[in-house]
Amino acid sequence: MSVEVRVPTLGESVTEATVATWFKKPGDRVEADEMLCELETDKVTVEVPSPASGVLAEIVAKEGDTVGVDALLAVVDEAAGAAAKPAAPAPAAAAKSAPEPAAKEDARMVDVMVPALGESVTEATVATWFKKQGEAVSADEILCELETDKVSVEVPAPASGVLAEILAPEGATVAAGGKLAVIAAGEGAAAAPAPAAQAEASAAQAAASGAKDVEDAPSARKLMAEAGLTRDQVQGSGRDGRVMKEDVQRAIAAAASAPAQAPAPSATPRPPVAASDAAREERVRMTRLRQTIARRLKDAQNTAAMLTTYNEADMSAIMELRNAYKDQFEKKHGVKLGFMSFFVKACVHALKEVPEVNAEIDGQDIVYKNYYHMGVAVGTPTGLVVPVVRDADQLSFAQIEKKIAELGRRARDGKLSMAEMQGGTFTISNGGVYGSLMSSPILNPPQSGILGMHKIQDRPVAVNGQVVIRPMMYLALSYDHRIVDGKGAVTFLVRVKEALEDPRRLLMDL
């Protein structure tokens, strides 16, 4: 029976495509869902799978042809495939004549793609490959780790088999939806490493000799000519490094934005270093996360009219409360009663009274947020991240402690999702866990306020005319003076201080 291969739906408002590459020739055996060809639209590249197993009987639309949606591309003959199959299991003679090709026919190539990276994130850097080319992999086994400017993303194997080819080595920048590697899956997977190794050697040899055997997409060649770009200036994301139209568009955009994105030269260039000292230095490229942290913090300083106000809180009441109920609290809720839940509750209480600290500037407008998503800064081996406790005003002390513990653990393991770090309205940063006695936190844009917690230290203070020793903590509120006046900032910090020194006020909403 003949099965037609037709052009799939190409996306909203896209009515036609160009046949870019056929991966099979007429007469080749194909498996169901095996990629037959690649179509190129003005927006994306679309791979067309085989609708059935059999033999590719006819190719109707050749490479370079323009085809509409649902147009006939090819015909697969299921009967021919079924007729060819019985000949394979012939006992000794057939096995002797060609055992390897039969195994290879059973193998199918599965692409390992860059997963969705999150809202507004379009590219990532390949940080680490946990498998080498030619190694066996299991379905869902982690193959590599990608690093974006916000989170690390683990990429699992989509199928069991052999890692036949790594297309994006460590350090490479890849786009969302780009191809990372190819897995040879199925019974013939064991035969995949040898051809993969040969292909790798051939590719290396071709690269060394400057050969360009891969034909780029017609639209890409045209756009490169119009933009005055050479083939070496564009990194191809298509099959075997084939340059697609979107690759050229990215190269043009990168060239246009390069001057704006280039880091400003430092005011004081690094002075010359003695050769003996240089030999003992180590130069390491900043990770994407660290670059983003640096850029955002500097942007906050350059954009906001940042000011910091200070106060101190007597932590005696909270510490007595914790000591009295910590065992019962942990037994009932399965989590320890820490300080962060008190600070989150105290900040929510103060934000309700001083709403401008919970607002942000958007152009000529002030956006007041009638919800309380508290960002909690967490230090990780790769840098500072700020997961968000959403609707903190609706959570109990136990729910807040559980959420913070979970987010902190996921942050340190690099498992945070983009959604878990977006949408915060106010941030709390606890430098006290590292022993900081006093600091001025930098705003987390576009937020207008951030509270800095510090080390609890016994200090002499005057209480009712007497000098006593109390566990004291310095508090620091950095705020955007464009939207928050001094009165509002001081009022906010005083309300936080009052709530911490008398936690009963939180229960009474005072």
TrEMBL record:
Q: Which residues cross the membrane?
A: none
Co-factor(s): (R)-lipoate
Which GO biological-process labels does this protein carry? L-lysine catabolic process to acetyl-CoA via saccharopine; tricarboxylic acid cycle
What's in the GO CC field? cytosol; oxoglutarate dehydrogenase complex
Its EC number(s): 2.3.1.61
Q: For the Peripheral subunit-binding (PSBD) domain, which residue ranges apply?
A: 215-252
Q: Which InterPro entries match?
A: 2-oxoA_DH_lipoyl-BS, 2-oxoacid_dehydrogenase, 2-oxoacid_DH_actylTfrase, Biotin_lipoyl, CAT-like_dom_sf, E3-bd_dom_sf, PSBD, Single_hybrid_motif
UniProtKB keywords? Acyltransferase, Lipoyl, Transferase, Tricarboxylic acid cycle
The answer to keyword Disulfide bond applying to this record is no
Catalyses: N(6)-[(R)-dihydrolipoyl]-L-lysyl-[protein] + succinyl-CoA = N(6)-[(R)-S(8)-succinyldihydrolipoyl]-L-lysyl-[protein] + CoA
Q: Does the keyword Acyltransferase apply?
A: yes
> In UniProt terms, what function does this protein have?
E2 component of the 2-oxoglutarate dehydrogenase (OGDH) complex which catalyzes the second step in the conversion of 2-oxoglutarate to succinyl-CoA and CO(2).
Summarize the subunit comment.
Answer: Forms a 24-polypeptide structural core with octahedral symmetry. Part of the 2-oxoglutarate dehydrogenase (OGDH) complex composed of E1 (2-oxoglutarate dehydrogenase), E2 (dihydrolipoamide succinyltransferase) and E3 (dihydrolipoamide dehydrogenase); the complex contains multiple copies of the three enzymatic components (E1, E2 and E3).
- Record-given protein name: Dihydrolipoyllysine-residue succinyltransferase component of 2-oxoglutarate dehydrogenase complex
